[in-house]
Amino acid sequence: MLPNLVFPDRLGCQELKETAASFERTLEAHGEGGLTAMGVETLQVNVGKLCNQTCTHCHVDAGPGRTEIMTRETVEVVLDVVRRYPEIRTVDITGGAPEMNPHFEYLVEQCRKLDRHVMDRCNLTVFFVRGKERLPEFLRDHQVEVVASLPCYLQENVDAQRGKGVYGRSIEALKRLNSLGYGLEGTGLILNLVYNPIGPKLPPAQAELEAEYKVELRRRFGIEFNRLYTITNMPISRFLEDLRRSGHYERYMDLLVTSFNPSAARSVMCRSLVSVGWDGTLYDCDFNQMLELPMRNGLPRTIKEFDLVSLVRRRIVTGDHCYGCTAGTGSSCVGAVA
Known about the structure:
By secondary structure, the chain is of the alpha/beta class. Helices cover 35% and strands 11% of the residues. It has a single domain, classed as Alpha-Beta Barrel (TIM Barrel), CATH 3.20.20.70. The protein has helices at residues 13-29, 72-84, 104-113, 135-141, 155-162, 166-179, 206-221, 237-246, 249-258, 262-265, 286-290, 308-311; strands at 42-46, 90-94, 117-122, 145-149, 191-195, 227-230, 273-276, 282-283. It is globular and about 50 Å long.
């Protein structure tokens, strides 16, 4: 039976307690305690909400009209944290289209100088934005892992979700990355793709869909890539609005709740990362960031206050959106987890 779920875009203190209680009761019913961190291996940095696309499933509500951008001052504080804590092995840069931030290249360069693995969550079409044409070569030169959005290998599905013409530009971008060595065996240049379902349903089995993607993209375009990540559409922001407009909200939430997988809950991404907002605020994950759910009282709240000792075993703030990460085979920034 569908519990009393709460998904406003902004939660007050009492609402936060109520929505967290529902998910935590589910954890308890499956013999799991509250979610706690197991370390901080990844710093996920959202450098802004500016994007050259407006996608229907976007949990960031990003788009061309957004003005939220991480400043150079905040970037320097992020770099200071990375410098001080070698335990942080990966810097995962996201947005918006992260490359639209004027300090993106500086952040990448400095993280690589610190010998950190850098991931760029790329929408592919940003390569065609004026002034960004040399981005593929920049990413190659700094051995940045590219995590690229391609929600389907069929044009009609991609353009329906991400906008008319996005599919064609995405294919051209993938070809260009391949020409630079991305996704090819022996180059060390990692190209991973991201699949999001079209509409209110869970992703199919990741390994099987990856094999299908590889066959179809190779057959149609000669495109190669390393891995496919299947990510569940989160019932927040723009996708939540679409669910309510279409009348599919309750059905989708019922699907997420009834598909809860305790094994997935043990491996969710928030247990090994900290999310940094464009303004330097700290969150347990990117989804909490978009809902403006801060870390628990007593923990560092901004990147300037970052303290690894207090964060590595912290209790994670949860809510009913957490059902999205724990349904089926689970969902994280690196796809299925169970």
